[in-house]
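Sharing in case it's useful to others searching the archive later.

Someone asked me privately for the predicted structure of Glycosyltransferase family 2 protein, so I'm posting the question and my answer publicly. Question first, with the sequence:
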Amino acid sequence: MLNISVIIPVYNASEFLEKSVASAMQFEEVKEIILAEDQSTDNSLEICRKLASQHSKIKLFQHPDQGNHGAAATRNLGIEKSSGTFIAFLDADDYYLPNRFDAEKKAFNDQQIDGVFGAVGIEYLTEKGKQEFQSKFNDVSLTTVNYPAEGKEVFKGLLGLTSKNFGTFFHLNALTVRKSALQKNHLKFNEVLRVHQDSDFIIKLAYHCYLKSGIIDKATGVRGIHDDNRITKIIKYSPQYNERQFLFWNSLYEWSKKNISDPDAKQHISLQKKAFELSVKKGFSKMTTLFGAILKDPKILKTKYRFTYTHL
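And my answer, the predicted structure tokens:
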């Protein structure tokens, strides 16, 4: 039987936390639930303490200084404190469905497989949250991929380097990974990134480890969409969006210089990083630098950042 540690980073999630924890408690395979609390300003810490006192498998941890360090550092804390053979993640405002670990039970019989990922559904908890989410992501019912994949196909698919459209990123809530694989490859969340640290982690994980798709055609967990979801607050191609995209691609770029041998992947990451680096420039400096970059490599015009006159 699987031995799973579920890591739940907790920050201002008092409204949702008990449902989230209960959804993980239902599984016999879940041996511990780690609540990594990040100096909430609501009563989340009190709820964590109550839950930990009621159930022996629920364990509460805080940062050594009991401060606020962000989602990346808080997930790293959870990984550090975990004792399970496998690690799964769950956001404190989301919850698992009963089929969450069905694919894992079979897949992890193969010792080659380091991680399994699946699909996550959406539940709109507020009308404002729904409008903000749909304005950015349209009416997407599942966060998943378009076809089964494993091994290097997952890494290339996440970067958009496959012949077929791999689809969107799979969500961290639907990932289960061997802890030994993280330790062997020294994989942690980049604590510099306040957003996109999950995407950064997933791409690096897909390169270093052997991942396999599990249930991708129906939800294994549910994301709660509400007024305070950080990812929906950022307007696409706004200065804030471009800056955060640059930090994300720069993280991958610095990592790729030491780890990646695939020339297509290295070039793709480099171009994305350069494109968003240019996007945060302004005025004449931006225009001249952009034209120089286009002359050097026209492929930069095909990156995720679309250059138009309004961006200049």
